[in-house]
Amino acid sequence: MPLPTYLLHLGDDALVLGHRNSEWCGHGPVLEQDIALTNIALDLIGQARLFYQYAATVLGDGVTEDSLAYLRDVYEYRNCLLVEQPNGDWAHTTLRQFFFSAYQYELYKAMKTSTDEQLSAIGTRSLKEVTYHLRWSGEWVVRLGDGTEESRARLLKALETLWMYTGELFRPAPYEEVLVEAGVAVAVDSLEGSWMEHVRRVLGQAGLTVPLAPAFQAGGKTGAHSEHLGYVLAEMQFMQRAYPGSTW
Amino acid sequence: MSDTATIKTLSDPRHVMELLENIPDPEVPVLSILDLGIVRDVRVYPASEQGAFPGVTVMITPTYNGCPAVDVIRMNIRMTLIAAGYTPVDVRTALSPAWSTEWMSEAAREKLEAFGIAPPNSVPSVCSLDLFQQDESVRCPHCGSYHTEMVSRFGSTACKALYKCKDCQEPFDYFKSH
Protein backbone atom coordinates (compact mmCIF):
# COMPACT_ATOMS: atom_id res chain seq x y z
CA MET A 1 0.00 0.00 0.00
CA PRO A 2 1.89 3.08 -1.20
CA LEU A 3 -0.08 5.80 0.67
CA PRO A 4 0.46 4.56 4.26
CA THR A 5 4.11 3.80 3.46
CA TYR A 6 4.56 7.31 2.09
CA LEU A 7 2.92 8.79 5.20
CA LEU A 8 5.20 6.69 7.41
CA HIS A 9 8.22 7.92 5.45
CA LEU A 10 7.20 11.56 6.01
CA GLY A 11 6.37 10.94 9.67
CA ASP A 12 9.54 8.92 10.35
CA ASP A 13 11.77 11.65 8.90
CA ALA A 14 10.19 14.20 11.24
CA LEU A 15 10.06 11.94 14.29
CA VAL A 16 13.65 10.70 14.11
CA LEU A 17 15.13 14.18 13.63
CA GLY A 18 12.80 15.51 16.33
CA HIS A 19 14.08 12.84 18.68
CA ARG A 20 17.72 13.52 17.77
CA ASN A 21 17.22 17.24 18.48
CA SER A 22 15.49 16.48 21.77
CA GLU A 23 18.69 14.70 22.89
CA TRP A 24 20.15 18.22 23.21
CA CYS A 25 17.54 19.23 25.77
CA GLY A 26 19.45 20.58 28.78
CA HIS A 27 22.78 20.35 26.91
CA GLY A 28 22.59 23.35 24.53
CA PRO A 29 25.52 25.80 24.55
CA VAL A 30 23.34 28.60 25.98
CA LEU A 31 19.78 28.58 27.29
CA GLU A 32 18.21 30.39 24.30
CA GLN A 33 19.73 27.98 21.79
CA ASP A 34 18.77 24.98 23.90
CA ILE A 35 15.19 26.27 23.83
CA ALA A 36 15.37 26.98 20.10
CA LEU A 37 16.49 23.45 19.27
CA THR A 38 13.90 21.82 21.53
CA ASN A 39 11.22 24.07 19.98
CA ILE A 40 12.27 22.74 16.58
CA ALA A 41 12.14 19.20 18.00
CA LEU A 42 8.59 19.86 19.18
CA ASP A 43 7.52 21.18 15.77
CA LEU A 44 8.98 18.11 14.07
CA ILE A 45 7.31 15.69 16.46
CA GLY A 46 4.05 17.59 15.89
CA GLN A 47 4.43 17.10 12.14
CA ALA A 48 5.19 13.41 12.69
CA ARG A 49 1.99 13.04 14.69
CA LEU A 50 -0.09 14.50 11.86
CA PHE A 51 1.36 12.02 9.36
CA TYR A 52 0.98 9.08 11.77
CA GLN A 53 -2.60 10.02 12.65
CA TYR A 54 -3.42 10.15 8.96
CA ALA A 55 -1.64 6.82 8.36
CA ALA A 56 -3.56 5.28 11.27
CA THR A 57 -6.91 6.24 9.72
CA VAL A 58 -5.82 4.74 6.38
CA LEU A 59 -4.50 1.54 7.97
CA GLY A 60 -7.38 1.05 10.43
CA ASP A 61 -7.35 -2.26 12.29
CA GLY A 62 -6.53 -0.74 15.70
CA VAL A 63 -3.39 1.03 14.47
CA THR A 64 -2.73 4.32 16.32
CA GLU A 65 -0.13 7.08 16.08
CA ASP A 66 1.47 5.56 19.18
CA SER A 67 1.67 2.01 17.85
CA LEU A 68 3.29 3.39 14.69
CA ALA A 69 5.92 5.32 16.63
CA TYR A 70 6.61 2.87 19.43
CA LEU A 71 6.00 -0.62 18.07
CA ARG A 72 7.72 -0.72 14.69
CA ASP A 73 11.24 -2.11 14.39
CA VAL A 74 14.22 -0.59 12.58
CA TYR A 75 13.57 -2.23 9.19
CA GLU A 76 9.98 -0.90 9.20
CA TYR A 77 11.11 2.72 9.55
CA ARG A 78 11.21 4.70 6.29
CA ASN A 79 13.24 7.78 7.30
CA CYS A 80 16.25 8.90 5.30
CA LEU A 81 19.74 8.20 6.66
CA LEU A 82 20.54 11.89 7.23
CA VAL A 83 18.11 12.35 10.14
CA GLU A 84 19.31 9.31 12.10
CA GLN A 85 22.97 10.38 12.11
CA PRO A 86 24.32 11.01 15.63
CA ASN A 87 24.29 14.59 16.91
CA GLY A 88 28.07 15.08 17.07
CA ASP A 89 28.95 18.64 18.07
CA TRP A 90 26.90 21.82 17.65
CA ALA A 91 28.22 22.38 14.10
CA HIS A 92 27.22 18.85 13.13
CA THR A 93 23.71 19.23 14.58
CA THR A 94 23.00 22.64 13.07
CA LEU A 95 24.36 21.67 9.63
CA ARG A 96 22.22 18.50 9.63
CA GLN A 97 19.22 20.65 10.56
CA PHE A 98 20.07 23.13 7.81
CA PHE A 99 20.28 20.43 5.12
CA PHE A 100 17.03 18.87 6.26
CA SER A 101 15.11 22.13 6.79
CA ALA A 102 16.13 23.33 3.33
CA TYR A 103 14.71 20.05 1.99
CA GLN A 104 11.52 20.22 4.09
CA TYR A 105 11.00 23.82 2.99
CA GLU A 106 10.88 22.77 -0.68
CA LEU A 107 8.93 19.60 0.18
CA TYR A 108 6.11 21.34 2.05
CA LYS A 109 5.94 24.17 -0.47
CA ALA A 110 5.26 21.56 -3.14
CA MET A 111 2.95 19.55 -0.87
CA LYS A 112 0.58 22.52 -0.59
CA THR A 113 -0.63 21.67 -4.11
CA SER A 114 -1.07 17.93 -3.48
CA THR A 115 -4.38 16.50 -4.74
CA ASP A 116 -4.69 14.90 -1.29
CA GLU A 117 -6.47 17.49 0.87
CA GLN A 118 -5.01 16.25 4.13
CA LEU A 119 -1.43 16.40 2.81
CA SER A 120 -2.06 19.82 1.36
CA ALA A 121 -3.31 21.07 4.75
CA ILE A 122 -0.32 19.56 6.59
CA GLY A 123 2.08 21.11 4.06
CA THR A 124 0.54 24.57 4.42
CA ARG A 125 0.65 24.47 8.21
CA SER A 126 4.15 23.01 8.46
CA LEU A 127 5.77 25.34 5.94
CA LYS A 128 5.40 28.27 8.36
CA GLU A 129 7.28 26.37 11.07
CA VAL A 130 10.00 25.11 8.75
CA THR A 131 10.70 28.65 7.57
CA TYR A 132 11.80 29.45 11.13
CA HIS A 133 13.92 26.28 11.30
CA LEU A 134 15.65 27.05 8.01
CA ARG A 135 16.48 30.61 8.94
CA TRP A 136 17.73 29.62 12.40
CA SER A 137 19.94 26.77 11.14
CA GLY A 138 21.19 28.84 8.18
CA GLU A 139 22.29 31.60 10.54
CA TRP A 140 24.27 29.06 12.55
CA VAL A 141 25.98 27.72 9.44
CA VAL A 142 27.10 31.25 8.54
CA ARG A 143 28.09 32.09 12.12
CA LEU A 144 30.24 28.97 12.49
CA GLY A 145 31.74 28.98 8.99
CA ASP A 146 32.58 32.66 9.22
CA GLY A 147 33.53 32.51 12.92
CA THR A 148 36.71 31.34 14.60
CA GLU A 149 39.30 28.94 13.26
CA GLU A 150 37.86 26.21 15.48
CA SER A 151 34.20 26.78 14.57
CA ARG A 152 35.13 26.75 10.89
CA ALA A 153 37.15 23.55 11.27
CA ARG A 154 34.22 21.88 13.04
CA LEU A 155 31.75 22.97 10.38
CA LEU A 156 34.05 21.70 7.62
CA LYS A 157 34.28 18.34 9.36
CA ALA A 158 30.48 18.20 9.67
CA LEU A 159 30.14 19.06 5.99
CA GLU A 160 32.52 16.27 5.04
CA THR A 161 30.65 13.75 7.23
CA LEU A 162 27.07 14.69 6.35
CA TRP A 163 27.25 15.54 2.67
CA MET A 164 27.12 11.93 1.51
CA TYR A 165 23.64 11.53 3.06
CA THR A 166 22.00 14.47 1.27
CA GLY A 167 21.51 12.75 -2.10
CA GLU A 168 18.95 10.30 -0.72
CA LEU A 169 16.52 13.16 -0.03
CA PHE A 170 15.98 13.59 -3.77
CA ARG A 171 15.82 9.94 -4.85
CA PRO A 172 12.20 8.80 -4.95
CA ALA A 173 11.41 5.41 -3.40
CA PRO A 174 9.05 3.07 -5.32
CA TYR A 175 6.07 4.03 -3.09
CA GLU A 176 6.69 7.70 -3.93
CA GLU A 177 6.87 7.15 -7.67
CA VAL A 178 3.41 5.54 -7.74
CA LEU A 179 1.90 8.40 -5.75
CA VAL A 180 3.62 11.12 -7.77
CA GLU A 181 1.72 9.96 -10.84
CA ALA A 182 -1.53 10.33 -8.88
CA GLY A 183 -0.58 13.89 -7.88
CA VAL A 184 -0.52 12.88 -4.20
CA ALA A 185 3.19 12.70 -3.40
CA VAL A 186 5.79 15.36 -4.06
CA ALA A 187 8.29 14.51 -6.83
CA VAL A 188 11.39 14.89 -4.68
CA ASP A 189 13.79 14.73 -7.64
CA SER A 190 12.30 18.02 -8.84
CA LEU A 191 13.28 19.74 -5.56
CA GLU A 192 17.02 19.21 -5.83
CA GLY A 193 17.73 22.27 -7.99
CA SER A 194 16.24 24.85 -5.63
CA TRP A 195 17.64 23.02 -2.59
CA MET A 196 21.13 23.13 -4.09
CA GLU A 197 20.78 26.80 -4.95
CA HIS A 198 19.80 27.67 -1.37
CA VAL A 199 22.55 25.51 0.15
CA ARG A 200 25.15 26.98 -2.20
CA ARG A 201 24.14 30.53 -1.26
CA VAL A 202 24.28 29.95 2.51
CA LEU A 203 27.52 27.95 2.36
CA GLY A 204 28.90 30.80 0.25
CA GLN A 205 27.96 33.31 2.97
CA ALA A 206 29.77 31.03 5.42
CA GLY A 207 32.86 31.10 3.22
CA LEU A 208 32.47 27.46 2.18
CA THR A 209 31.76 25.70 -1.09
CA VAL A 210 29.48 22.81 -1.96
CA PRO A 211 31.53 19.58 -1.76
CA LEU A 212 32.41 17.84 -5.00
CA ALA A 213 32.13 14.38 -3.44
CA PRO A 214 29.11 12.36 -4.58
CA ALA A 215 26.21 12.19 -2.10
CA PHE A 216 25.88 8.45 -2.56
CA GLN A 217 24.54 7.02 0.72
CA ALA A 218 20.95 5.78 0.53
CA GLY A 219 18.68 3.04 1.80
CA GLY A 220 16.82 4.44 4.79
CA LYS A 221 13.73 5.28 2.75
CA THR A 222 13.35 1.60 1.89
CA GLY A 223 14.23 0.31 5.36
CA ALA A 224 18.00 -0.31 5.08
CA HIS A 225 19.28 1.83 7.94
CA SER A 226 22.65 2.62 9.47
CA GLU A 227 23.43 1.10 12.87
CA HIS A 228 22.46 4.39 14.55
CA LEU A 229 18.68 4.08 14.19
CA GLY A 230 18.54 1.01 16.43
CA TYR A 231 19.99 3.03 19.32
CA VAL A 232 17.46 5.82 18.75
CA LEU A 233 14.56 3.37 18.82
CA ALA A 234 15.94 1.45 21.80
CA GLU A 235 15.79 4.64 23.83
CA MET A 236 12.56 6.04 22.38
CA GLN A 237 10.60 2.79 22.54
CA PHE A 238 11.91 1.49 25.88
CA MET A 239 8.79 2.22 27.93
CA GLN A 240 6.33 0.68 25.48
CA ARG A 241 8.53 -2.38 24.95
CA ALA A 242 9.10 -2.92 28.68
CA TYR A 243 5.54 -2.10 29.77
CA PRO A 244 3.32 -2.75 26.72
CA GLY A 245 0.23 -0.56 26.53
CA SER A 246 1.25 1.66 29.45
CA THR A 247 -0.23 5.19 29.44
CA TRP A 248 0.28 8.32 31.49
CA MET B 1 -22.81 36.76 24.61
CA SER B 2 -24.83 39.77 25.76
CA ASP B 3 -28.07 37.87 26.31
CA THR B 4 -26.60 34.92 28.22
CA ALA B 5 -29.33 35.14 30.86
CA THR B 6 -31.95 34.19 28.32
CA ILE B 7 -30.10 31.13 27.07
CA LYS B 8 -31.54 28.24 28.97
CA THR B 9 -31.73 25.31 26.65
CA LEU B 10 -28.91 22.88 25.93
CA SER B 11 -29.83 22.65 22.26
CA ASP B 12 -28.91 26.31 21.73
CA PRO B 13 -25.36 26.49 20.27
CA ARG B 14 -24.91 29.78 22.12
CA HIS B 15 -25.04 27.80 25.35
CA VAL B 16 -22.10 25.71 24.12
CA MET B 17 -20.20 28.88 23.19
CA GLU B 18 -20.83 30.24 26.66
CA LEU B 19 -19.29 27.09 28.16
CA LEU B 20 -16.32 27.21 25.78
CA GLU B 21 -15.69 30.82 26.72
CA ASN B 22 -14.73 29.64 30.20
CA ILE B 23 -12.10 27.15 29.02
CA PRO B 24 -8.65 28.75 29.28
CA ASP B 25 -5.64 28.11 27.06
CA PRO B 26 -3.44 26.04 29.42
CA GLU B 27 -0.26 27.80 28.23
CA VAL B 28 -1.66 31.35 28.34
CA PRO B 29 -4.40 31.11 30.97
CA VAL B 30 -5.62 34.71 30.54
CA LEU B 31 -6.99 33.71 27.13
CA SER B 32 -10.00 31.51 26.58
CA ILE B 33 -10.03 29.16 23.62
CA LEU B 34 -12.56 31.51 21.99
CA ASP B 35 -10.18 34.48 22.44
CA LEU B 36 -7.51 32.45 20.66
CA GLY B 37 -9.83 31.84 17.74
CA ILE B 38 -9.18 28.10 17.55
CA VAL B 39 -12.87 27.10 17.76
CA ARG B 40 -14.04 26.99 14.14
CA ASP B 41 -17.48 25.44 14.36
CA VAL B 42 -20.02 24.17 16.89
CA ARG B 43 -22.93 21.89 15.95
CA VAL B 44 -25.58 20.72 18.37
CA TYR B 45 -27.69 17.66 17.58
CA PRO B 46 -31.13 17.49 19.20
CA ALA B 47 -31.74 14.84 21.84
CA SER B 48 -34.14 12.88 19.65
CA GLU B 49 -31.56 12.27 16.91
CA GLN B 50 -28.87 10.54 18.93
CA GLY B 51 -30.40 9.51 22.24
CA ALA B 52 -31.60 11.03 25.46
CA PHE B 53 -29.08 13.90 25.48
CA PRO B 54 -28.19 16.50 22.88
CA GLY B 55 -24.90 15.68 21.21
CA VAL B 56 -22.34 18.25 20.11
CA THR B 57 -19.51 18.44 17.62
CA VAL B 58 -16.79 21.04 18.15
CA MET B 59 -14.29 21.73 15.39
CA ILE B 60 -10.94 23.21 16.48
CA THR B 61 -7.80 24.26 14.59
CA PRO B 62 -4.48 23.82 16.41
CA THR B 63 -2.23 26.86 16.61
CA TYR B 64 1.03 24.93 16.08
CA ASN B 65 1.45 21.29 15.04
CA GLY B 66 3.53 20.40 18.05
CA CYS B 67 1.60 22.47 20.58
CA PRO B 68 1.18 20.14 23.59
CA ALA B 69 -1.72 22.28 24.84
CA VAL B 70 -4.00 20.99 22.09
CA ASP B 71 -4.48 17.60 23.75
CA VAL B 72 -5.32 19.27 27.07
CA ILE B 73 -7.72 21.67 25.35
CA ARG B 74 -9.45 18.78 23.58
CA MET B 75 -9.90 16.96 26.89
CA ASN B 76 -11.14 20.10 28.68
CA ILE B 77 -13.76 20.72 25.98
CA ARG B 78 -15.01 17.14 26.33
CA MET B 79 -15.12 17.24 30.12
CA THR B 80 -16.83 20.64 30.28
CA LEU B 81 -19.52 19.72 27.77
CA ILE B 82 -20.17 16.25 29.22
CA ALA B 83 -20.49 17.79 32.69
CA ALA B 84 -23.01 20.25 31.25
CA GLY B 85 -25.17 17.42 29.93
CA TYR B 86 -24.04 16.85 26.35
CA THR B 87 -23.54 13.30 25.04
CA PRO B 88 -21.82 12.37 22.82
CA VAL B 89 -19.19 15.10 22.60
CA ASP B 90 -17.07 14.91 19.48
CA VAL B 91 -14.02 17.20 19.25
CA ARG B 92 -12.62 17.23 15.73
CA THR B 93 -9.49 18.86 14.34
CA ALA B 94 -9.45 20.87 11.12
CA LEU B 95 -5.99 21.65 9.74
CA SER B 96 -7.19 23.78 6.86
CA PRO B 97 -7.36 26.73 6.73
CA ALA B 98 -4.28 27.00 8.95
CA TRP B 99 -4.71 29.02 12.16
CA SER B 100 -3.54 32.61 12.05
CA THR B 101 -3.09 35.25 14.75
CA GLU B 102 -5.56 37.31 12.71
CA TRP B 103 -8.26 35.07 14.21
CA MET B 104 -7.43 36.32 17.68
CA SER B 105 -10.01 38.72 19.08
CA GLU B 106 -9.25 42.36 19.90
CA ALA B 107 -10.14 41.62 23.54
CA ALA B 108 -7.54 38.84 23.48
CA ARG B 109 -4.80 41.27 22.44
CA GLU B 110 -5.65 43.58 25.33
CA LYS B 111 -5.72 40.69 27.80
CA LEU B 112 -2.31 39.50 26.59
CA GLU B 113 -0.74 42.92 27.00
CA ALA B 114 -2.22 43.33 30.49
CA PHE B 115 -0.74 39.90 31.36
CA GLY B 116 2.74 41.03 30.26
CA ILE B 117 2.87 39.30 26.87
CA ALA B 118 3.24 41.54 23.82
CA PRO B 119 0.28 40.74 21.50
CA PRO B 120 0.96 39.73 17.89
CA ASN B 121 1.47 42.62 15.49
CA SER B 122 -1.62 43.11 13.38
CA VAL B 123 0.10 42.31 10.10
CA PRO B 124 1.03 38.62 10.06
CA SER B 125 4.67 38.28 9.08
CA VAL B 126 6.08 34.79 8.96
CA CYS B 127 9.83 35.22 8.93
CA SER B 128 11.49 35.30 5.54
CA LEU B 129 14.49 33.21 4.62
CA ASP B 130 16.89 36.16 4.72
CA LEU B 131 19.51 35.45 7.32
CA PHE B 132 20.18 37.96 10.12
CA GLN B 133 17.29 40.14 9.00
CA GLN B 134 15.93 43.04 11.04
CA ASP B 135 13.25 41.79 13.42
CA GLU B 136 9.76 43.20 13.72
CA SER B 137 9.30 46.21 15.95
CA VAL B 138 7.46 45.06 19.06
CA ARG B 139 5.96 47.26 21.78
CA CYS B 140 7.05 46.51 25.35
CA PRO B 141 3.96 45.41 27.34
CA HIS B 142 5.45 46.90 30.52
CA CYS B 143 6.42 50.47 29.54
CA GLY B 144 5.06 50.84 26.00
CA SER B 145 8.44 51.53 24.42
CA TYR B 146 9.26 50.32 20.91
CA HIS B 147 12.94 50.39 21.83
CA THR B 148 13.08 46.61 22.18
CA GLU B 149 15.22 43.79 20.81
CA MET B 150 14.66 40.13 20.15
CA VAL B 151 16.67 37.79 22.38
CA SER B 152 15.49 34.55 20.77
CA ARG B 153 12.99 33.71 18.06
CA PHE B 154 12.00 30.66 20.11
CA GLY B 155 10.47 31.19 23.54
CA SER B 156 8.87 29.26 26.38
CA THR B 157 6.18 27.89 24.05
CA ALA B 158 5.98 27.37 20.29
CA CYS B 159 3.85 30.50 19.82
CA LYS B 160 6.17 32.97 21.56
CA ALA B 161 9.51 34.70 20.99
CA LEU B 162 11.70 36.17 23.73
CA TYR B 163 12.26 39.94 23.72
CA LYS B 164 13.93 42.50 25.95
CA CYS B 165 13.04 46.15 26.44
CA LYS B 166 16.04 48.47 26.15
CA ASP B 167 14.27 51.26 28.05
CA CYS B 168 12.78 49.55 31.12
CA GLN B 169 15.25 46.61 30.83
CA GLU B 170 12.50 44.05 31.40
CA PRO B 171 12.44 40.80 29.42
CA PHE B 172 9.07 39.83 27.94
CA ASP B 173 7.37 37.27 25.71
CA TYR B 174 6.05 38.24 22.29
CA PHE B 175 3.17 36.26 20.81
CA LYS B 176 4.50 35.71 17.28
CA SER B 177 2.41 37.07 14.45
CA HIS B 178 1.52 34.39 11.91
UniProtKB/TrEMBL annotation, chain A:
Gene Ontology biological process terms from the UniProt entry: phenylacetate catabolic process
GO cellular component, one term: cytosol
TM regions (residue ranges): none
Domain of life: Bacteria
Short name of one Pfam family: PaaA_PaaC
Protein name per its UniProtKB record: Ring-1,2-phenylacetyl-CoA epoxidase subunit PaaC
Organism: Dinghuibacter silviterrae
Lineage summary: Bacteria, Pseudomonadati, Bacteroidota, Chitinophagia, Chitinophagales
From TrEMBL, chain B:
Domain of life from the UniProt record: Bacteria
Every PaaD zinc beta ribbon domain range: 130-176
Residue ranges of domain MIP18 family-like in the record: 15-82
UniProt cross-references to PANTHER family, sorted A to Z: 1,2-PHENYLACETYL-COA EPOXIDASE, SUBUNIT D-RELATED, FE-S PROTEIN MATURATION AUXILIARY FACTOR YITW
Name of this chain's protein: Ring-1,2-phenylacetyl-CoA epoxidase subunit PaaD
